[in-house]
Structures are given as C-alpha cells and as structure tokens.
Design brief:
Layout (H helix, E strand, L loop, with lengths): L9 H9 L26 H4 L5 H17 L7 E2 L1 H8 L3 H14 L2 E8 L5 E8 L34 E5 H19 L10
Antiparallel strand pairs: 1-3, 2-3, 2-4
C-alpha cells in the first residue's frame, strides 16, 4: 500500500482553509429607528427551555412586546400571522411552526378570531400563560403611566371590529365541513340492500 506523500501547493491549501467562508461579507443593513418600544420582563424559563428554538424565543419576545403595548391588562393580544411574518422576517410556515412549539411548551394558548360579518378568520387570539412571567409579574404587569380616567379606545369605530374567538380545533373542523359536504355530494348513492 502506497502512502500519498504529495504535498499540495499553497494555493490549494489556501482554498481548503477558506472554502467554507462566504465570498463577500453580507451587506450591512440600516438598523431600525428607536421607537421606544421594549420587551417586558419575562421568566428566565423561556431562555433555559431546551424544547424551544431560538426563533421560537424571538417570536415569543415579539408577541410579549405587542401584548405589553396594546393588551397589557388582559394579556390576550389579537394578532395576525402576517404581522409576525413582517416583524420576524420569516416565512408564514416558519412562524406557524414557532407558534405550535410555544403552545406545546405551555407558554401560550392560541385561538382563532372569526369575523362577525363574514365568518372568516380575522386573526389569532394568543393568551400569554403564567409560565412566561416572573413571580413578581404573575398577576399583572405594572400599571400604564397615563392620565387617570382618560379614554383609551376611540368610540368612533366601537362596532367595527367585533371578532369572536373560537378554539383552533373547532376552527379546523369548520374548515373541513365544506370539503366533507363536497365529497358526500360526489359519491354515488348507495344501492338498496336486497330483501331476504
């Protein structure tokens, strides 16, 4: 058996050392402007949970930021997957996977919002569950620094967005009803049983 005693030239060695590196560094993007928004205090359990991916943790922090700004009192933000797709810069299926991972781990509970006018899906109702919060914020987040007695919501469009939440499994059954009805209409009728 002959051993290969040939030594490669310096160009080959340089290529082998740098072949895994990108040809050019990625372009530097402009950082986002400072809006003053921030992620509220969350439990360290979110960071230490081995069942979560880094993307799911980032998705959870983005949902907590949204809930802290708009739904601080009840911790049940009404949000759309499209908003999370734009905020996280991920595809729709990846965001849906993140939500399933977070729901399976027990950090959120997801329901579907149906429009009262059309009956179609209008978004998601995500409830933030207690394992997500540290002990000193289990009951509620700190009160908002606002004028006491000031009206929070405008009464101009108070009847515009009335969405009814339903569980995801019930929504899936409702979506399958049309397919089942179409399937049953395409099947030929059963022949009568012969008389004995």
């Amino acid at each position: 058996m002959r051993l290969n005693t040939h030594t490669p030239n310096p160009r080959t060695m340089r290529s082998l050392r740098a072949c895994h590196l990108p040809a050019e560094p990625p372009p530097y993007r402009k950082p986002p402007s400072d809006t003053g928004a921030y992620v509220p205090e969350l439990s360290a359990r979110l960071e230490n949970d081995p069942n979560l991916t880094d993307g799911a943790r980032r998705c959870m922090r983005k949902i907590a930021e949204y809930a802290y700004i708009r739904h601080r009192e009840n911790r049940r933000p009404e949000i759309t997957v499209t908003y999370l797709v734009k905020a996280l810069r991920r595809c729709r299926r990846t965001v849906q996977y993140y939500l399933r991972v977070l729901e399976r781990a027990g950090y959120i509970s997801v329901g579907v919002l149906t429009s009262a006018r059309t009956g179609l899906c209008a978004g998601l109702l995500i409830e933030l569950l207690s394992p997500l919060f540290p002990r000193h914020h289990q009951a509620a987040w700190p009160a908002r620094a606002a004028k006491p007695g000031a009206q929070f919501f405008s009464l101009t469009h108070r009847f515009r967005y009335k969405n009814a939440p339903i569980p995801v499994r019930v929504w899936a059954l409702r979506c399958m009803d049309g397919i089942f009805e179409r399937l049953m209409s395409c099947l030929p009728p059963l022949e009568p049983l012969p008389a004995a």
